[in-house]
Design goal:
Oligomer: homodimer
Number of helices of chain A: 16
Largest sheet of chain A: 7 strands, antiparallel
Shape of chain A: globular
Strand content of chain A: 15-25%
Number of domains of chain A: 4
CATH class of the largest domain in chain A: Alpha Beta
Chain lengths: 451, 451
Amino acid sequence: MVVAIVGAEHVRADAPSLAAYGQDALGQGHPPDLVVMPANTQEVAAVARLCNAGRVPLVVRGAGTGYTGGAVPTSGGLVLSMERMNRILEIDEVNLLAVVEPNVINGDLQRAVEGVGLFYPPDPASLDTSSIGGNVAECAGGPRAFKYGTTKRYVLALEAVLPTGEIIETGSKAVKNVVGYDLTQLLVGSEGTLAIVTKVTLRLIPKPPTQATVLAMFADIQGAVDAVSALIQRRVVPAAIELVDDDSLRAVREHTGQEFAPPGTGAVLIVEADGTQAAVDEDIDRVARACRDVGAMRVTLAVDAVEREQIWSLRRLLSPALKATGLKKINHDVVVPRGRVPELFAVIQELKARYGLRVASFGHAGDGNIHVNLMVNPAAADETARAKDAERVLFERVVALEGSISGEHGIGFAKAPYLGLELSADEIALMKRVKAAFDPNGILNPGKIIP
Amino acid sequence: MVVAIVGAEHVRADAPSLAAYGQDALGQGHPPDLVVMPANTQEVAAVARLCNAGRVPLVVRGAGTGYTGGAVPTSGGLVLSMERMNRILEIDEVNLLAVVEPNVINGDLQRAVEGVGLFYPPDPASLDTSSIGGNVAECAGGPRAFKYGTTKRYVLALEAVLPTGEIIETGSKAVKNVVGYDLTQLLVGSEGTLAIVTKVTLRLIPKPPTQATVLAMFADIQGAVDAVSALIQRRVVPAAIELVDDDSLRAVREHTGQEFAPPGTGAVLIVEADGTQAAVDEDIDRVARACRDVGAMRVTLAVDAVEREQIWSLRRLLSPALKATGLKKINHDVVVPRGRVPELFAVIQELKARYGLRVASFGHAGDGNIHVNLMVNPAAADETARAKDAERVLFERVVALEGSISGEHGIGFAKAPYLGLELSADEIALMKRVKAAFDPNGILNPGKIIP
């Protein structure tokens, strides 16, 4: 029995717990029948064998900050909460890597490695609450992905438990490894459907000596989009190019008591540069010039680390602020080829007009990865229905723009019905066979990714 | 019939052709029964269906420059040579990407994109002869992988044909994509055992405005190794840190009529920096100081592009020069965590002494990825046997150093017997199930990777 494996004090079956573990940041889901909190890899393997033998759905949960329901059951079963496996096991300054248990919080790891002059680039807006294991499961990105890439670029090796109970180790501590199939990269972004990650070895880089952040203010969204195009055309590659539209600015103003920019600002770009002082100065100069050339109202440089952090904390407040509107926030993280951001915003304008919805958009413009939030009042007649229609049109348009329906958040169960918009029947059938190669009985996170 | 698919003029069955297509740079292999040269994806799919129906081994071949036999049959069958699919289809300056057919030569692509101010970093020593399709199949690296990563970091999307004939498209032109399993990354490095890549979409970056190359000369290998450690410790991350040992220097001197460094030089480091002029100047200064601090005899800076290219062309001549010794060159590309390069060279010294072999070592020291060449005179009594013993000990030591038996060249059939040194039985069994998910009848490149 599972109690014998982890101890009674690490099993929950009370209604409040089951309700709590039946939801993540999506705010939907189904309560599990049991919540189990293992202490180590052997306990994880024992629980997996038990679930596999009994054909019990097994859903792995990190910090529960996901937006697509990846960490919650669709039909009961057992939630394996990794919350007790939360230690930084090793920060190796010689080999520039860290070894962590899955529930280390991203921000805690960043602070720990920066303390010794190293740097872990992936910085999802949830960095102070999301876990490395969850970041690996979804392949989390963040603003700095523009220059540094997403989580997958930093995962060197994984220890994982197969749903049938075998413990595997993928990759190695070497930065190159072509021995056999790249199971490490296959597991990153697999949303807990293939294996249970129990240990993560991450590549680190030297901390950039200098960072600088610019806030560019525009009269309207078009100005900001033109600036993004100008930066791409001029081949300026700072660390981050973030865009915030007027609806998002309004939400921050109304619900945080703070503001990015004076009223009348229709959109802002947040651009961060890092590296040597000389390189940063040159980047900032080119960024400011590009923004002014396309008609920025104002371009301001954060004077110090405090002001930098204020800007980025506001950026991270966007999602909470939109939630605080009281409207239902249907959050999509569509992505298009970076040069097609103007076309994506044309689609967003079309959706606003055609469906009479409030749509707040912000995000990683440099990557073509925009968080498009359909803001819905469930009480208002047919607004939910209109949002559903708008959602499908958005996804269709993004695929037509040679983009993808998710750049960071994954599919979970929320987007599973739309998988066929982007993948062919042959591709989905192949993914099902890959899934079966790992999980012959389909116990691991059923109902996710594949409809 | 296959002739009906590609036309008689694109099928070879004559003995010289079969012999030629039965070898790659490894110099071993088995001749195919037939060589087929398709013109497009549809022809590839038709040939695959035919082979699958007849259970005929199907071996995909690019430029045949691989070192582990990945492109040659182990037991006859059909070689599908991609040589006619060699067009650059698209260089997209707005979205910073290129779309190519598999047999575009790496160096041709580099020159083409640099012509419009863009940059494709992966630079295997074979860049003037190896194909992008082959680079993708093996996940090729090269000196610049130290700063820029290997091929996998640049592959955004693939068109591929399954051995059962379905045409799939993985990834997208967006730089982020987490829709379903990352089949793109799974196919990169899969050595033609899972699918036949017919189109590659590559991410490009802006061309670094400046490059500079330093040649540091040391009295012995220890000095060069100490310099690598110093650079890692000081967190200097130039574009490339290459090491060349005395046996390799000797081979260049004796067989190319050129030389890296005056006689008496026991080892050299080639360090390249790129970026803005200011950043390059700073990097070069730190590199030179680090090399002098550990006792470099001489540190010289290439004065211009011509001198830079001389240094790099010599670097690329190392393998041909070692081949020209007339000895059999058993080439291994082992990799260790970057800080453990000194321990790896201690192992190499031990092997030289213990087995009385000439061992020439050079390569990507910054990545911990060293090409260890056992130089064998097959005529000399039991030298081949001693090399076999040395090879196994080398692999065992590398795994003990938390490294990997291959960083770039892959497993093919040459290293397949050693897979179990690095991977557990459970891991190999899982890889076999993944293989079966793509290739149920096992027709694609049989005998490769998995013993």
